[in-house]
TrEMBL record:
Keyword terms: Oxidoreductase
Protein known as: Succinate-semialdehyde dehydrogenase
Entry's family note: Belongs to the aldehyde dehydrogenase family.
Gene3D superfamilies: Aldehyde Dehydrogenase, Chain A, domain 1, Aldehyde Dehydrogenase, Chain A, domain 2
Catalysis: reaction(s): succinate semialdehyde + NADP(+) + H2O = succinate + NADPH + 2 H(+); succinate semialdehyde + NAD(+) + H2O = succinate + NADH + 2 H(+)
GO molecular function: succinate-semialdehyde dehydrogenase (NAD+) activity
Broad EC category: oxidoreductase
Pathway of action: Amino-acid degradation; 4-aminobutanoate degradation
Residue positions of the active site: E290
GO terms for cellular component: cytoplasm
Species in which this protein is naturally found: Mycena rosella
Length: 517
């Protein structure tokens, strides 16, 4: 007999999971539930010092498929003791790994990249099963995720230092790049795989060792990646994974405050990013924080409306609106407002929500009940203030699905203007002038991504420069690629991932050579 599940609120995770915590681990995950070709990719234990391990307490977390509410399996509910062990294992592995050549690390990362391609169907399916996104999106994420390994493999061999000419005779100044050390990596459920490789790929390429805390909603993708890393030849202790839900506060604290850890990398909400930054400050650790967004998406009257509608659909409804760079506020200039609104609503009305494994599904579920409640609250609030529902507006009762929604005439005071919805709600706001919309777009504490559509080259430069965000999409709704420096300004975080992001995992050391006559 299984004990009834208990539900815990997590102070560290506002995007808290729809997950149950049990006092007894399920015997194993059922192969039939996953339907993978290579079932050995499913790991139901955490990974410390090269060994698959259970929690000392024997407690587990149950992982749910958000599309069906079916249990997928369990992973260990770990705590402080296991976190310390993981950090110690990473520290023990560091001297040897950091001394490997960049070419060696390149080769291992490329092997892992090849394995991710070889298991593309399984890994894509796994993402769909635990996150809910459609199979096309799951496979798309796997390709995106693998691309970080390829990119950082190529970056590993180009971590050049420099020679700085000295004003003094017989002196030479050079800099070298060295791995920062043991890193803590904490990732969210909305990209169960890609947010791990974006950090871990850079860390491994730089010569760092890592402790990874995957999200409790979607740990299986992370554990499958670790299995592939092991098969690719990553040595014991170089990657360690601690799974947790109930004990997330003590695990997160240790991952940030431990003196052994030299860097913290986190993707998630702004409140949690601030909390972790505060903890990491106790030892002045380097931090990379990719926090919340509230992206403006602006359509000017000189835009190509067809392209703007198509981009708004990708930008707003990708992963059912659950990405940090999704459009949150869609500003449309008054003369094209009605046309844009009706074309967008017409397209959104054709969406089919459902299980991501079903080929006809265009949009999957939200991750858990709290996510549904937030979308509904944003819709209800806007409608109460005078917004009109063009499509959708409600959840499908008893499920994790929310009808993709378009609201028009959303007033300035509506919550959706100041809070990230993280769901399938397109909120349309009318504007008259460029100055007005720039002011509106910038009137938020966060600044991750922003998008706009215009064919006027002068306006393109003006608006791109004025938007207070880390990343601008001009005449596109999709900016994510491994080659770019992904990250925000204001309260959207610190640091950049992808692109030159390997730098975030390295120290630059200056060496001054004197007496060279
Ligand atoms: C995120 O939502 O945090 C990442 C989105 C992306 O990489 O496109």
């Amino acid at each position: 007999m299984r004990l009834p599940p208990l539900h815990f609120a997590s102070p560290l995770r506002p995007r808290a999971p729809h997950i149950t915590f049990q006092f007894r681990r399920m015997a194993s995950a059922q192969a039939s539930v996953f339907g993978l070709k290579d079932f050995s990719l499913i790991k139901t234990q955490a990974f410390i010092d090269g060994k698959w391990v259970d929690a000392k307490s024997g407690q587990t977390i149950t992982v749910i498929n958000p599309a069906t509410q079916e249990e997928l399996g369990t992973v260990p509910e770990m705590g402080l003791a296991e976190t310390k062990e993981a950090i110690d294992a990473a520290a023990k592995a560091l001297p040897a790994w950091s001394k490997t050549t960049a070419k060696h690390r390149h080769d291992i990362l490329m092997k892992m990249f090849a394995l991710m391609q070889e298991h593309h169907d399984d890994l894509g399916r796994l993402i769909t099963l635990e996150n809910g996104k459609t199979l096309a999106e799951g496979k798309g994420e796997n390709a995106y995720s693998a691309s970080f390994l390829e990119w950082f493999a190529e970056e590993a061999v180009r971590t050049y230092g420099e020679h700085i000419p000295s004003p003094f005779p017989n002196v030479r100044n050079v800099t070298i790049k060295q791995p920062i050390g043991v890193v803590s990596i904490m990732t969210p459920w909305n990209f169960p795989s890609a947010m791990i490789t974006r950090k871990l790929g850079a860390a491994l390429a730089a010569g760092c060792t890592a402790v990874v805390k995957p999200p409790p909603e979607t740990p299986f993708s992370c554990l499958a990646l670790v299995e592939l890393a092991r098969r690719a030849g990553v040595p014991d202790g170089v990657i360690n994974v601690v799974t947790t839900f109930k004990n997330v506060s003590e695990v997160g604290k240790e991952m940030c405050e431990s003196k052994i850890v030299k860097k913290v990398s986190f993707t998630g909400s702004t409140p949690v990013a601030k909390l972790l930054a505060g903890m990491a400050a106790s030892t002045l650790k380097k931090v990379s924080l990719e926090a919340g967004g509230n992206a403006p998406f602006i359509v000017f009257d000189d835009a190509d409306i067809d392209e703007a509608v198509a981009a708004a659909i990708i930008c707003k409804f990708r992963s059912t609106g659950q990405t940090c760079v999704c459009a949150n506020r869609i500003y449309v200039q008054s003369s094209v407002y009605a046309e844009f609104a009706s074309r967008l609503a017409e397209k959104v009305a054709t969406f089919k929500v459902g299980n991501g494994l079903d080929e006809s599904t265009t949009h999957g579920p939200l991750i858990h009940e709290r996510a549904l409640e937030k979308v509904q609250a944003h819709v209800d609030d806007a409608v109460a203030l005078g917004a009109q529902v063009l499509v959708g507006g409600t959840a499908i009762p008893g499920t994790s699905f929310f009808h993709p929604t378009v609201l028009c005439d959303v007033p300035a005071g509506a919550r959706v203007n100041s809070e990230e919805t993280f769901g399938p709600l397109a909120a349309l706001i009318k504007f008259e002038t460029e100055d007005e919309v720039i002011k509106l777009a910038n009137s938020t504490d966060v600044g991750l991504a922003g998008y706009f559509f215009s064919r006027d080259v002068g306006r393109v430069w003006r608006v791109a420069e004025k938007l207070e965000v880390g990343m601008v999409g001009c005449n596109t709704g999709l900016i994510s690629q491994a080659v770019i420096g992904f990250g925000g300004i204001k309260e959207s975080g610190l640091g950049r991932e992808g692109g030159h992001g390997i730098e975030e995992y390295m120290n630059t050391k200056l060496i001054v050579f004197g007496g060279l006559n």
